[in-house]
Design a protein that fits this description.
Layout (H helix, E strand, L loop, with lengths): L4 H4 L5 H12 L6 H18 L2 E2 H6 L5 H19 L11 E3 L7 E8 L8 E3 L3 E3 L2 E3 L2 H13 L2 E8 L12 E2 H4 L3 H16 L6 H22 L3 H32 L5 H20 L11 H5 L5 H11 L2 H11 L2 H12 L5 H10 L2
Parallel strand pairs: 2-8
Antiparallel strand pairs: 1-2, 3-6, 3-7, 4-5
């Protein structure tokens, strides 16, 4: 998900798109924040301009067979999310838009080096969030270097999907259609989950809940269609997400112990690098055989720092607790409704999740 202010600017319609294009010509005269918003708004305006109804693309003889099959899967997964899971799908993923590159947007995260403290950006409506999206990849690199010079850890990663929380018709992007069937169905259900529940100021809960609903929903979707192989793969992928949640949870605990130890300077830098190496070795070594769908050795080769850990944790926080609620109830739709009702009523959504377990 990328800063949603960029998309909400477009709700005023095509006139705003035209105005933004004009404003883009004079953006160099404006502040960096305004230029950022304008670049993002103009880029997304292009995406929205190219969108076509999915049913129209499916019926187009020029559409290749592979794309048509993926789009039909999206239609079915979306219908399942609405009818069986009672998710607020709205108009999300009823249109399709092509993107002329493999990666839609780069997402930047940052953190202090001496503690797990995410650098955050503030946006109207959604509040403070621990990431910033860039359609301009060079700008993302420059911003990451600026934060590094300020002494922060940084992490830049690609993203191929987003949600506008139902504010307007989110198109399905060609960057997403390239995913395998399980990931595609999980992505569709994940993103429409954001339309159903969004707790301001709790990005970790929002994303972790959507991860749970996405994969568990994909499993239920494929089972309802008699596609056992795909359902089993979705279930295995979810189990791997829970395993990763535990792995990063342990790493977070170890880092927190280190950062409150009183160590500082070069000694702290050496100790944290050793801890990152040990964790990577565990992932590629004794933990590797436990994963069913993830290449743990490849994952272990990814550089680790505080920003990486915090960015990953946004999607993997306390996943096992969602599974506990499901195990106690046995019905995904009931669990979703219960969590949405309790977490959406205000207060700490994690406390509401615990209450869902106690009330199961």
């Amino acid at each position: 998900m990328i800063p949603r202010l960029l998309r909400r600017l477009l709700r005023l319609g095509c006139v705003v798109v035209i105005v933004l294009v004009v404003l883009g010509a004079v953006a160099a005269l404006l502040s960096s924040d305004v230029r950022y918003v304008l670049r993002g708004a103009v880029a997304e305006a292009g995406i929205l301009w190219r969108r076509r109804p999915i049913v129209e693309v499916v019926g187009d003889s020029a559409t290749d067979r592979a794309t048509r099959e993926k789009l039909l899967l999206v239609i079915a997964a979306r219908a399942y999310a609405a009818d069986s899971l009672r998710l607020a799908v709205g108009e999300t993923f009823t249109t399709y838009s092509t993107v002329d590159r493999d990666t839609l947007v780069l997402v930047l995260s940052a953190s202090r080096r001496d503690r797990l403290a995410a650098y955050t950006w503030s946006y109207p409506i959604v509040g403070r969030v621990p990431y910033k999206g860039f359609f301009d990849f060079a700008l993302a690199a420059r911003e990451a270097k600026r934060l590094q010079r300020a002494g922060l850890d940084t992490y830049v990663r690609p993203s191929d999907a987003f949600s506008t929380l139902g504010w307007f018709n989110d198109p399905l992007l060609s960057t997403v259609v390239g995913e395998d069937s399980v990931e595609l169905a999980a992505t569709v259900i994940h993103e429409v989950t954001h339309n159903t529940l969004f707790v301001r100021g709790h990005v970790d809960f929002n994303e972790s809940f959507a991860t749970f609903v996405g994969y568990r929903g994909a499993e239920a979707f494929f089972r309802s269609r008699g596609q056992t192989r795909l359902a089993d793969r979705a279930a295995a992928r979810w189990r791997d997400e829970v395993r990763l949640s535990r792995f990063y949870g342990v790493l977070v605990d170890r880092l927190n112990v280190l950062y409150v130890s009183g160590m500082s300077g070069p000694a702290l830098e050496a100790a944290r690098e050793q801890l990152f190496r040990q964790s990577a070795d565990e992932l590629a070594g004794p933990l590797e055989p436990t994963f069913e769908t993830i290449d743990a050795r490849r994952l272990a080769r990814r550089p680790l720092n505080n920003a990486v850990v915090l960015a990953v944790q946004v999607y993997l926080t306390r996943l096992g607790e969602f599974d506990q609620v499901l195990a106690a109830s046995g019905d995904l739709r009931t669990v979703i409704a219960r969590i949405v009702s309790r977490a959406g009523s205000g207060g700490d959504p994690w406390a509401a999740l615990a209450g869902s377990l106690e009330g199961s």
